[in-house]
Amino acid sequence: MANLTESEIEKLFSGAPQYFARSEGHYTGAPHPSVAFPWDEALEIRDLTDHTQIEDKAWGSITAWPHITRDVNPDRSASQRASEEKRRAHFYPRCRERPNMLSMFGLEKGSLGYQAALELGVADSLQEEQWGFESLAARPHAVAEQRQKMLTSKDGLRSVDETVIMEQLIKNGKRYTEKHLRERRLTSELYNELFLHLLHPPTKVLDHRDPYSLAVQIMALVKILATPNVWIDFSHVEWRIRLGQLLWSVPGVSEGVDFSQDRPAEAAADFQEERYWLLLQILLACELLVRLDAITEGEELGTESIRPAEVHRFEKEANKTVKWSLILARVWLENIEIVKSEPAEPAAAEEKPSGWLATLTKRMSLSRDHDSHHSRPPTYEIRGKHIQRQIRGLTHFAKRLRWPGIESHASQISQNCHAVAEGIPINTSLLDPSLSDSHHALHHRHSNNSQSQSKHIRARRRKIAANLQEGGWLSKSYLSGMILPGEALCHFLMATLLENDPEARSKLGIIAILSGGLIYSGKSFWSTSCVVGRVLAAGKGAVECMGWISSDVIPQGRADGWVDIAAEELQEDKLQIDKKARLWAKQTIERESHVLGNARSDPAGVLPADFVIPTENVYRDKLPPVIDIRLTKLTLHPATNAVSTTSIERYGIAPTGTDQAQEFQTYAASITFEVTDLDSGDRAKHTFSLSKDIYFVTAHPCVPSQHVRIMKSPSSPTIRQVDLDGTGNPAGRTASVVGHPLHKYYTYTVFHLSELLVKRDASLDELLASYSSATHRPTITPVPASDAAKVLVIDCITNFQPQPQEHEIPLSPVVSRSDSGSTIPTPLNAGVETSSSEPSGSNFASVLESASQKMHSETRRRQFGSDMEVLARAICAEKGWNALISRRRRGCLACAIREAGALGWKVIIRVD
C-alpha cells in the first residue's frame, strides 16, 4: 500500500475546513479562533461561512470587526452614496467584542458559529465590573482622587469648558469627513489645538526628529486615556448598555435612574458630572482617532510614516480602555452630528424642564447660571445622522420576526420614532467643571460611600431586564445609532419596537425581560440568550433575526406577557472561563481537529486505509423504525430551588421596595412530543425539561473534494464507499456517499433518534462506551485501542416521516466542475440544497451570482425546520449536551466530527 504524498493529501482534503486558534499579536488578549481552507484558492470555497450576514446597515454597529452589510432595502440619498464612494483608510484597533457578533448568528436558527462558541469562555460579560451605575456616588474613592490629580497636574488635562468640548467635537466631525490633507500645516495646527486647549504640553522632547509630529500627539493622548480610575471602561458590557442612559436620561425623572431619595441634589450632580466626563472622554478619543486615521491614510498614500518602535509602544500602552474609547469615537463620528445655534430671546416665563430630555435631537444648553446682564451662550443640538436608516432597520426587524400587526402599525411606529428623534428639545445644564468646590464635595461624598452597590455576576451571557418608557433612552440609543459592539443592539431593537408600539406595551407592561421570552397575540418571541428560544428555533415556521426567535408555539395556558426562564449552566462550561477557557489551548484545538488526526506529526506515514467516509446511517442488524414526531405542548411552571438562576441586571428599574423592583417570577420549561412508530402503530409521549443552558453550533460548510480518485486502490476500503463514476452504485452500497475522508483517530458512534428515546436514562459516557470498531468501516490498518468513541452522532435523517415545509422555496442548481469535467455539488453559505447536474451554457460564477441575488440568506434559512429537530435539541437541553448541527449536503459528517474535536464537544445532530 503506497503512502499518500503531501500533494495527494492536499487534493484529498480540498474544500475541507480546518480549525485554528492563533494569537493576533502582543497585548491582544485571548487567541482568535478562525476557520480556513489553506489548500484552496477558489473564492467560492474560501468565502464559505457558518454564520449569516448582517442584513441591514442599521445593524452594522453590532460588531467592531470589518464587515460587509447586505442592505436588503437600499434607500440611499445622493449624499450618502457620495460619502461611501469617498471611503478612505481608517485605523482599526486590535480590539473587538467577544464573542464575535458576526459569529453569534449561525446558519442554523438558534445556533452559533465556531468563533463565537469558543469565545464564550472569554466573553466580555465575564469582565470584572468597573464601578456601579445605579448609585454613582458609590464609585470608589480612587476615581475622585485620580480625576482631581489629573486636572491639577501640569502634564495632564487642562480645565476644559463645556463649550470648548462641543466646539472641538464639531471641528472633529468636519475633519472626519474631509479628505486627507498632505500639507505639513495640518500637523502643527493639530498640535496647537491639542496642547493649548485640552492638554498641557509635554515636559520633555519625545521625538528629536519632529517634536510636533502626529506620533508625539498620539502618545500624549494615549497616556491620558490610559490613566486608570478616570474614564469609563467600555470593555465592560454594563457600560456599553448604560452609554445611552448616561447621555439621554434625566436623573430622578420618570426614567427609573435610581438615586438616593434623601440627597437628590447631590445625586443629580453626580450624574451630571459623569455625563461631563463621558463627553470629555469622547472628545479625547475623537482627537486620538482623527490623528490615527491621518497616519493610516498617510501611510497608504506615502505621505506619512511611523517607526516600528512607535507601533510597538502604542500597542503596549494603549490598554483596553483606550482601544474601546477609539471604538466609541468611531461610532460617535459615524452617527452623531452637533449643530450649533444662537439662543433665542428669553421668554417671559420659561418652562421648567419636563424631564423628557431623552429626545434624540436633544438640545444641550452648556451655560452656567449667568446674571441677566450677561449674554446668553449658544446652544448645541446632538443629532443622529441616520434617523431614517435606523427606523427602516427597526421596521425590517419587526417584519422579519412577523411582529403581530406590523403591516398595519408600521407607519404609526415610524411616526412615534420620528417624534422621539425630532421632538421639542429640552435645555439642560451640565456640571460646572470648576474643580475647587465641586470636587472637594465629591471627594467627601466618596469617602462616606465606599461600599459599591454593583452586583458581581460571572455569567457568559447576562440576564437583562429594562423599564420601557415612551420615548425612553433605550429608543434614543437605537435611533441615534450610538450603539457599541456587542449584544446590546439586540436588546435595543426589541425595546425600541415595544416603546414605540403602544398597543404591545399596554398588553405586555413596562418591564421587559430582554433575555427571556414574551407571549403576544398568538405568538411567542424568545431571546437567543434563552435556551427555550434556541430549542424552538428548530421548529417549522420559526424565524430568527438579530438575537430574537419568533415561533408559533405558545406555552400552555399562558396569557400575554414576559417570562423569565431558569436554566442551569453546565459544570464544564463554568470551569472553562477566562484563562481556563479552551480557546487558550491553541495546540490542543488544532491537534484534535487536524485532517490527519494523530498522524499529523508523521505525514510521511499516512496510508489510504487509515481513512473512512463516515455516514450517519450505519445499522448492521436492522434499520430503525419509521417514526413520526409531533410537538404537542410547551409548559411553564414555577422554578424550584433545584434549578440555579442568575441575577437579572436591571436597567432603569429602581431596586427599591416597590412592586416593580420585586424579584421577577422565574419559570422552568418543559416540552412534550408524541412519537408514532409507523411500522407498528405504537404511540408514546415524551416530555423533556429544558433545564440546561446548552448551546448549538452550525457545523461549518464544506465542499466535497474534486480529487477523490486518488484514493482508488484495491487495498483501500474507503474507495468502496465513494461513487467515482457517478452511477450511484459504488461497490457494496446502494447510494452514493459524498464527503471528505475521516482519519481513524476520530472514533464515533451513531444512535438513531428513536434509540435515544429508548435509552434516555443513559449518560453520554455510557452511550459513547457502546462504540465498536465495527461501526466504522473495516480498515486494514488497526484502529485505535479505545474503550469509548470520541463523538456521538444523533441520526435525524434515516426513516423519518417527512413533514411539509411551510416556507419551501424552489432552489436553483449550483455546481462546479472538477478538473476531469465531472460535476461536483457545491453548497452555498446558507446551506442550499444542490443538484448534481449543471445547467447548460452556464459557468459556476454566473450561477453562483444569480443564486445569491435570487435567494436571500435569511429566506434560505427558513426552509429548514421540523418537530423532529426540536425533539433532538430538547434531548440535549435535558441532558446538558452542547451539540453541533450538521446538515447533509451543506457539510459532510467527517468535517463536523473534526469540528467537534476543535470545540471539545461530543455530540453531533445530523439532519437532512
TrEMBL record:
Keywords: ATP-binding, Helicase, Hydrolase, Nucleotide-binding. Coiled coil: none annotated. The keyword Transferase does not apply. Residues 815-854 have a biased composition (Polar residues). One of its GO terms (molecular function) is helicase activity. Signal peptide: none annotated. This is Helicase-like protein.
